[in-house]
Amino acid sequence: MTRRRILAVGGPGPLPEGLMSVAAALAVTLHAGVQQCNLPTSPADDGPGSGREDFVRAAGADDVIGVVVDQPGGAVDWALHLAAAIDRPVVFAPRATTSPFTLRRVLVPLDGSARATEAVSQATSLAREVGADVIVLHCVHGASVPRFEDHPQYDPGDWTRELAARYTATLGEARVEVRVGRAEDLAVDFGNAIGADLVVLGWNRQPAPGRARTVRAILEHSKVPVMLLPKGRARQRP
Amino acid sequence: MTSLRHREEVVAGLARRFEAIVFDWDGTAVPTPPTGARDLRRVLRLLLRRGVHLVIVTGMSAGQIDRQLRLRRRGEPGELVFLTDGGSEAVALGPAGPLQISRRRATADEDAALDRASEATATALRARGLTVAVASRLNRRTIDLLPGSAFTDPPRASVATLADAVLERTSACGIRDLAEIVEVAGSCSLAAGLAHARISSDVRHIEIGLTDTRDAADAAFSHLGRLGIGPGSVLIAGERFGPVGGVPGSDAGLLGVAGAERAVAVSVGVEPGGVPHGVLHLGGGPEALLELLWSQVDRRDRRELPMIDRDPAWTLVLEGVDPRRERAHESLLALSDGRIGTRAAPLRFHPAEDGGVRIAAVYAGGAGGEALLEAPAWRRLAGRMVPGEPHERVLDLRTGVLGERVGGEQPVDTIAFSSLAQPGLAVLRASGPRLRAGAPLATSGRGRRAEAWHPNDAGGGVAAAARQSRRGSLDRFAVYAASQHHRPRMDTARRRAAAAQSHGFDRLLCEQRAAWGARWQAADIRIVGDDELQLAVRVALYHLIGAVRDRGEAAVGARGATGDGYRGHVFWDTDVFVLPFLAATWPGAARAIVRYRHRRLASARAEAAALGRAGARFPWESAASGFDVTPLVGLDRSGQPMRIENGAMEEHIVADVAWAAATYAHWTRDRGMDGAVAEILRETARWWASRVRTDGEGKAHIDHVIGPDEYHVGVDDNAFTNVMARWNLRAARKHVGTAEAAQFAAIAEALVDGYDAATRRYEQFAGFFDLEPIVIAELATRPIAAEILLGRDTVSGAQVVKQADVLMLHHLVPDETGPESLTPNLDYYEPRTAHGSSLSPGVHAALNARAGRIDNALSDLRLAARIDLDDLTDTTAAGVHLAAMASTWQAIVGGICGMRAWDGELQIDPALPAPWRSLAVPVEVAGCSVRVCLEPGHLRVESTRRVTVRVGAALKPHRVPPGGLHLRRSSRGEWVSAR
């Protein structure tokens, strides 16, 4: 029987300790092994000779259950395109990731939509299995702004209680925090404030400019690893 | 199909409980000729005792039936009604014999027309060589095709012999069959001026009448509807449904009315021509019916569960438990009786549930923290829900009964209700091989028991006692005795529970249905042409009916007792939205609300005095004491604290309470409440008189308030508040002395209202027009909680309105507003309104209808009606929004029908939306039941006594005659007589 693998991916040379520590922590949680994967150039490089296509093909193997990618910082378009091509959970580990990596607190920014919530449900149940707290940050903005607020002295409380019950129904026990604003503006600071070790996001694998603004912003600014969980099928397979 | 299989199908179709049985008499219930009815009498009595309603349909007279049956009622819960003389007369069986309920009497013209039609038919038949005889009976003429004594009627079982004899005679005259004679009779009737003659045949006779079996069936279903019995719970039994001699059988008319297709029909006759599709053919004559009736007795004695009539227009069905929506569903399917509210959590524990029982108007917690007291649960069975287990809940809105099934192959079935007939009593019947009952009352954290005591902090509380017994099925009876300030006696609850058990499930269910039947008779709005809205409106009315008791006083929380939202506090929702519905449909319940306010006048006076003013200042949020219980601080959506100023500033509640009392008086003309209404008007007016500030020019102002648009806090001269205060002052003048009346009049005259006669627009408050001119309709999809979308600071500095504010004046006190000012204000304020309050869509639906914008009205109405059904607030989990539900009634009655009561007189100015084929609305005005029916271009008004209604924009008076008023809309848009 083939053992399940987590691919730890970086450029040439030794992979960052933080990255390896994240991969190892996930592997222990998921009862998998870690396979180190060095690309000829940085993972951010998708030009000829970068080895990106070979890597994506390898990541699609049946026994690969997740990918942890070195994220050197700076622009993140490459990260989105890479994650969009892989039909697996992808964790981007920034260089600031500490080693050893311990999963104690998982931040899940959500807007209440059922698809986004379901996308992260597996990750949150795994997090709880290793004893980590799950904190849902519900961001009220745009389509998630309530249509009615009859009595401000009561409705926010009733609404928050119901919101927490709905999240609990899908995600199990979770602490729910509500903030008014965009997740892209709020999540990183909120994560820092609560000492999150990992940010989990569901996404539609739409890397085009103007899409995935929340994912883009959090990837760009987060100092802790960010796990992207695909909500849909892969757009294209290598 | 083999006869055996056919028989099995027939038996399977009859193997259930029926709650009412409609049956033909002669040939179905008793043989022809009759041979006594002793066995029948016995079984009918037992059925009546078990709460089964019986309707006998016959062409005979009530006296003839009574002489055969010789049955008297002795307090049985079931009713027995005779529909006699071909549907012309309705007679109920009472302790002393039959009592006439109604009788159709032909006018002299109709009698003459019947004579002409029957004679012309006889003449036509005689011309063909057929000898016939005409006999006159009530509202009909009978043409005997076998006249004379030469032929004796065969037994009913030999109908084919009779048909042969008749057809032999007719064919000898060249007449094809009975259908041809019916055609002749139809033509003659038309020629005689009877456009709607009923032509029928029992083979030997042809009848020309004003009524026939169809009318009897119509009367039967209407009567049963008033008793809370839907057609799906009815068994119809006859002996001649199928055609004979080319015409439908004499009992076929029983199936010829709307709703009858949902009943189960069975023929015990021979049916030589077969039975129509859907009719079960059992055969066997009266003996078979007797057997059927006995089987119904047995089913009750075996405690079989009644079936819920799954009429899609009357039921909410919920499959499975959706953990994401469960709590909202529990609110929507909640059972309420005006005293207790029971959330519809699954029978067995489910982790996503938030069930519970709450006692209306009994609060726990101290001053400021008062919240509805939670009581032990009575519906709970032992055990937990198994994930993925089949589960279904069905709420029957018609009867306030909740059915629930848990489990697949060996399910547990239950029927539960909270008794509207005996508020505070809850009843459960459960059955199933895997049923585990547990003790009857479940108390959170304290296990299960048969009695429980939940105290509050005010010396009162709730004492709950339950009894249950298991004989096959489980029957459970729970009684809640509750009081705010006095400890209720457990003995009382115990005694009532024992009495309920002694009455038994079937009697209590019968009472429950009748109580709901009466409420629906008074309140049901019938919309033909929009099934979805029809159901949504019924859901709204269901919760409104269940929310308010009709005795004593009623503190009606904004969510009723369906949840803990708003802590059960009483807002203007109750006075301005809920009360008008009750005043117009069930005055006793509206009176209880007025009493609640009136009995808290002392607190309201104390509130006013504490502020150094006169009169009475009712609080924005009220609970047991009548002092303000509005929280001073709340948490916003981010959990940040914010000051709540509504208790200090939302003073329009004072005039709202007065308006509600006056509205009650206008609808009911209840002289017994005149004193209370006058006192409320007087004391609230005194508050306003002492509250206003008069400037140097003699103008009166009301500073520092919050209007219904709560986005703007601490504003001066809010138009709604000022005009309502003005109305209040004027309305109170007749209840005070001359000097004070003059003072009220002067202040009313001096009050500024922000009205500009040139534009016919009100300024919502002083300075509103100077705010940032944001038009929220151009910024966002509405409804939207604009305060969250844009932030509190932005909306408070902009022309963004939460809900109708100025427009609320046109809704409540149109006579106090500027002439023809509705449209300009609607044009201006509607696009600036976010509709961020659940009250807003319904009010705008009413106003759009009044402004002739029917499409907009319909769209707003549909939104209002679905606020809880679709959980559009995401807070239905905390209970349904009673005021939003009441706003749908107001939109239809006040808006689309343009109905309003003024000192006991009804005004009607209707405009039917194009998609609707008809609309029927019942109301009660000054003790008179009035039914208003709209069809495109037509208006019918029926009343239980002669009343005058004022119709159209011009309020033209029309006297409603005994047969009803029928008007049509002329080409000039006026309502004129349709005659």
Identify the notable features of this structure and list them briefly.
heterodimer, A: 238 residues, alpha/beta, nine-stranded mixed sheet, 8 helices, 9 strands, disordered C terminus, B: 979 residues, alpha+beta, eight-stranded mixed sheet, 28 helices, 34% helix, 21% strand
Commentary on this structure:
- The complex is a heterodimer of chains A (238) and B (979).
- Chain A has 238 residues and is an alpha/beta fold.
- Chain A is 35% helix and 24% strand.
- Chain A has helices at 17-30, 52-59, 77-85, 114-119, 121-129, 155-171, 183-194, 213-221, and strands at residues 5-10, 33-38, 64-71, 90-94, 105-110, 133-140, 175-180, 198-203, 226-230.
- In chain A, helix 7 packs parallel to helix 8.
- Chain A is globular and about 60 Å long.
- Chain A starts with a strand and ends in an 8-residue tail after the last strand.
- Residues 233-238 of chain A have low confidence and may be disordered.
- Chain B is of the alpha+beta class and 979 residues long.
- In chain B, 34% of the residues lie in helices and 21% in strands.
- Chain B is built from 28 helices and 42 strands.
- An 8-stranded mixed sheet of chain B has the order 5-4-3-2-1-10-11-12, with helices on both faces. In chain B, strands 13-18-19-20-21-26-25-24 form an 8-stranded antiparallel sheet. In chain B, strands 27-36-37-38-41-42 form a 6-stranded antiparallel sheet.
- In chain B, a hairpin with a 5-residue loop joins strand 28 and strand 29 (641-643).
- In chain B, helix 13 (572-585) packs across helix 28 (882-896).
Could you give the order of strands across the largest sheet of chain A? 2-1-3-4-9-8-5-6-7
Strand content of chain A: 15-25%
Radius of gyration of chain A: 18 Å
The counted number of beta strands of chain B is: 42
Largest interface: A-B, 30 and 44 residues
Q: What form of chain A results from the Cα inertia axes?
A: globular
Let me know the number of strands of chain A. Answer: 9
Structural class of chain A: alpha/beta
For the sheet with most strands of chain B, the description reads: 8 strands, mixed
Assembly state: heterodimer
Ranges of chain A with pLDDT <50 over ≥5 residues? 233-238
Q: What summary fits the major beta sheet of chain A?
A: 9 strands, mixed
Total number of helical segments of chain B? 28
Shape of chain B: globular
Number of helical runs of chain A? 8
